[in-house]
Structures are given as structure tokens and as C-alpha cells.
Design goal:
By secondary structure, this protein is an alpha/beta fold. The chain contains eight helices and ten strands. The protein has a six-stranded mixed sheet, sandwiched between helices. Helix 4 crosses helix 5, helix 5 packs parallel to helix 6 and helix 6 runs antiparallel to helix 8. The longest helix has 16 residues.
Length: 252
């Protein structure tokens, strides 16, 4: 494993038993993600991309093969070690935000730090405030989740993913519930964070969203079939400016 690698997987397989049938969700996947990359993990439903994300996030384990995260072979770790890895090495952003209702933005962002014994309450508050400022929510810290728009809620979720200084952020269809303009705003934020050196793995089935990343890996039937650098990379901020009012494509 190279010194620059955050993630390295070798010959990764994942099988599920469904009744009498074995479903082969991943079939011998090799993939490396280096520090500072912004990678879109793409594929249609059933391609294996969500299974891969669950394994990368230490939420599931492989049936065969090796997964190294920041130099550690994940399959050798015990349950409590996996929990610590999830809390200290990984940041998660989900399609549905997963914020606590009737709870302020600041309290939502502080949540991962409650499980970090090395961080006292004063430092926890300071780091949560810094994370919210980084995502453009300086004036929304005291707002409750249900008082914010979808885009603002996703920014809170991104701030929460940043607060523990993870080695990589894993985003799962993070623009899936947002309209076009807000999706571009969120992708512009991810581009800004990546320019600051943050490594991002971004699961999406939308080519329009994937073009804002730096590298696209495409899955089909459990196999990685394409791995390419994005040569004509989109500028999410410019895409916002290019949108006209009648171009909105609101999601349900």
C-alpha cells in the first residue's frame, strides 16, 4: 500500500444468501483512492456501488479479499475497533440528511464528538462552530432541523461529517433529494472542500453530478468496468449561474 493511499481494496468479493440462491454483489474488485482525490462511484441499481460503500464505511464486511483504510486491514479489526474507525476516520453524508429532528444545527454537528473521549465540551462546541462556518452556515447554527431548507440540512450533514477531521468523506447520493440549483450548490461546496485537501468518495447514479468530481469509477453487475479521470470537469458554481428559473428540475 502506497503512503498516499487512503483506501486500497484487493480482490474484494461480497456474497449474500437469498433463500437458496447466492447473490454475488461484488466480484473481485480492485480499487485505490489516494489522499486528496474526489471520486464518483457510479452505476445503476444493483451494480454493487452501494454494497461497496457499506464496506468502505465499515458498515459491512467483505466475503473475500482485503480492504485497507488509512493503512489498516479492516478485516483484522474487532467490533469496537471498527466502531472507533467509523467515528474517527470516516465522515458520512446521506441522501436523507439523517439529522436529529427538533435539534439545532450546532447540536447535530456536535453529535459525533460526544463519542470522542479526547474532546471536552468546550472544544466540541468550537469544532462544531468551525465546521458550520466552513459549509456557509455561520448564521444558522441555532436553527432547528425543521426550520431549514433541504440544502441547508445537507450542509449541516456535511459539517457533521467534517467535525472529526476524517481521512475521507463518504457521500451516498447526497444530492438525490435536492432540486437542480441546490444540487449544484452542494457540489460546489464539495469542490471547495476537496480543494482544501479533503478526500471524498461520492456515490451517484447521475452523470450530471459525477462530472463535478475528478475521477469516475463505474460498476456493473458487481464489477468495476471503468476507471477514468474527468477531463472536462464541471464548475458547480458556474452551473448555478447558468441555470435559468425555468431550468429547475425539482425532485419529489
Amino acid at each position: 500500500m502506497s503512503n498516499n493511499s487512503i483506501i486500497e481494496i484487493k480482490n474484494l468479493h461480497k456474497n449474500y444468501q437469498v433463500g437458496d440462491e447466492i447473490v454475488r454483489a461484488l466480484r473481485g474488485v480492485d480499487l485505490t483512492i489516494d489522499k486528496g482525490e474526489f471520486v464518483a462511484i457510479m452505476g445503476t441499481s444493483g451494480s454493487g456501488k452501494s454494497t461497496l460503500l457499506n464496506i468502505l464505511g465499515c458498515l459491512d464486511t467483505a466475503s473475500e479479499g482485503d480492504y485497507f483504510l488509512d493503512g489498516k486491514n479492516v478485516k483484522t479489526l474487532k467490533r469496537n475497533e471498527l466502531a472507533e474507525i467509523r467515528n474517527t476516520k470516516l465522515g458520512f453524508v446521506f441522501q436523507s440528511y439523517n439529522l436529529l429532528p427538533r435539534t439545532s444545527a450546532l447540536e447535530n454537528v456536535e453529535l459525533p464528538l460526544l463519542y470522542n473521549g479526547a474532546v471536552n465540551s468546550k472544544l466540541r462546541r468550537e469544532r462544531a462552530e468551525e465546521a458550520l462556518i466552513a459549509v456557509g452556515l455561520k448564521d444558522r447554527m441555532k436553527h432547528l432541523s425543521n426550520q431549514m431548507s433541504g440544502g441547508q440540512q445537507q450542509r449541516v450533514a456535511i459539517a457533521r461529517s467534517l467535525v472529526n477531521n476524517p481521512v475521507i468523506i463518504l457521500a451516498d447520493e447526497a444530492t438525490g433529494n435536492l432540486d437542480s440549483r441546490t444540487s449544484f450548490e452542494i457540489m460546489a461546496l464539495f469542490q471547495e472542500l476537496n480543494e482544501k485537501g479533503i478526500t471524498i468518495g461520492f456515490v451517484t447514479h447521475e452523470a450530471e453530478i459525477a462530472r463535478f468530481t475528478k475521477r469516475n469509477v463505474v460498476f456493473r453487475d458487481g464489477r468495476l468496468i471503468k476507471d477514468m479521470i474527468v477531463k472536462d470537469r464541471g464548475d458547480a458554481k458556474q452551473s448555478i449561474l447558468d441555470l435559468k428559473d425555468d431550468d429547475y428540475n425539482f425532485s419529489s
